Amino acid sequence: MLSLLYLVLRALVRLLVSGARRGRDDGSKDLEILVLRHQLRVLQRKSGRPKLRAIDRVLLAAASRAIPRDRWAAFLVTPATLLRWHRQLVKRKWTYGRTGRLGRPPIDAQIRELILRLARENPRWGCVRIGGELRKLGIRVGATTIRTVLRAARAGPAPRRTGPSWTEFLRAQASGIIACDFFTVETAWLRTLYLLVFIELGTRRIHLSPSTVHPDSAWVTQQARNLALDLDDRSTTIRFLIHDRDTKFSKAFDEVVRSEGARVLLTPIRAPNANAYAERVIATIRAECLDWTLILGRRHLDRTLRTYAEHYNRGRPHRALDLAAPRAQAWDPMPVRPRDVRRRDALGGLIHEYHGRAA
User: Fold this and answer.
1) Which three-class secondary structure string do you get for the chain?
2) Which residue, among 81, 89, 240, 90, has the nearest Cα to 169 in the 3D structure?
3) Contact 60/79 with Cβ under 8 angstroms?
4) How far apart are the first and last CA of the chain?
5) How far apart are CA 303 and CA 322, in angstroms?
6) How far are the Cα atoms of 34, 175, 234, 258, 299 from residue 240, in angstroms, in the given order?
7) Average pLDDT in the chain
8) Residue 160 pLDDT
């Protein structure tokens, strides 16, 4: 419509100017006065920067085709603006609709909604974590695609911290190494509870001890025995056990480890990066569970961490395992339709796990 109106006005302006010239009158002056009056009305509509409508641009562009360029100073806008408007009008005249869609095919709308649902219900998850959860459901979507979907919805991915670097020795021998470390939890009554966490570097499985108020030598030694019993049930051989130089690790604790045929490796003094696996898993436990739970006592803490350890070992995708869970039985599930995805809550809804309807 604007292109058609532009052509009509341009023809009328040419007739007006040509008729005035035959009558020995400079029709361009009349047209210039018309342009000035019209621009004055535009300025009177609102104070401040004038707002030109589409019809205003059409009229001024059409008039510029008839008024000599030496008189273009009468226009409110610059000559470059007039030429640009003219090019836009010509472009609209020769614009045709697209016959097909270029580029990659768009992501399915149901998968897009599922990605946004996971991001909305789990604000601490990043793109890789969301991709791992989708892969558990048989839906393969790349992290870049997930990031694009989140940015388009103005729901940027959660910040993720990259893990520390490991030595080549630990990478090659991870299947036989276990790292452990103590960490503390403050209850609602400001009572300090101690726990001991073990992590198998090869499988990324974790073992959490019961909490205690007094982590003496007898208690620590018993945790080593419990770990040995758990590993005997799975025929897993311990080759090395890493821990720091905390005095709570008694000689009896190390003797139990050596009796299993393993070697105890002590980290350097004040070097937490040397025991980075244990430090990282403790940070994960705090960030995903303890920082969002008010612990009332030992029983509450033990029950909470048992539930979280079960989720961590069975249902949480791990980046070091190609986004598989540490204890996943099968990692090639049947694809699940997005509308059939169901959510299972743990720890009162703090943790969400997703599965197909038939699961």
Assistant:
1) CHHHHHHHHHHHHHHHHHHHHHCCCCHHHHHHHHHHHHHHHHHHHCCCCCCCCHHHHHHHHHHHCCCCHHHHHHCCCCHHHHHHHHHHHHHHHCCCCCCCCCCCCCCCHHHHHHHHHHHHHCCCCCHHHHHHHHHHCCCCCCHHHHHHHHHHCCCCCCCCCCCCCCCHHHHHCHHHEEEEEEEEEECCCCCEEEEEEEEECCCCCEEECCCECCCCHHHHHHHHHHHHHHHHHCCCCCCEEEECCCCCCCHHHHHHHHHCCCEEEECCCCCHHHHHHHHHHHHHHHHHCHHHCCCCCHHHHHHHHHHHHHHHHHCCCEHHHCCECCCCCCCCCCCCCHHHCEEEEECCCCEEEEECCCC
2) 240
3) no
4) 58
5) 29
6) 92, 10, 17, 9, 32
7) 81
8) 40
For the purposes of burial, counting CB atoms within 10 Å of the CB of 293, is it exposed (0-12), middle (13-18) or buried (19 or more)? middle
pLDDT attached to residue 355: 83
Quote the pLDDT of residue 359: 47
The gap from C-alpha 264 to its chain's centroid, in whole angstroms, comes to 39
- Is 168-321 assigned to CATH 3.30.43.10? no
Of 359, 314, 319, the C-alpha closest to 337 is 359
The CA distance from 202 to 177, in Å, is 7
Tell me the average pLDDT across 216-238: 85
The 3-class SS string of 164-198 reads: CCCCHHHHHCHHHEEEEEEEEEECCCCCEEEEEEE
By residue count, the chain amounts to 359
pTM exceeds 0.90, yes or no: no
Of residues 162 and 207, the one with the higher pLDDT is 207
Residues 295, 184, 161, 135: is their CA dihedral positive or negative? Answer: negative
How far, in Å, CA of 174 to CA of 200, rounded?
8
Three-point CA angle 71, 73, 74, nearest 5° = 85
Q: Where are the domains of the chain?
A: 2-93, 109-160+335-355, 168-321
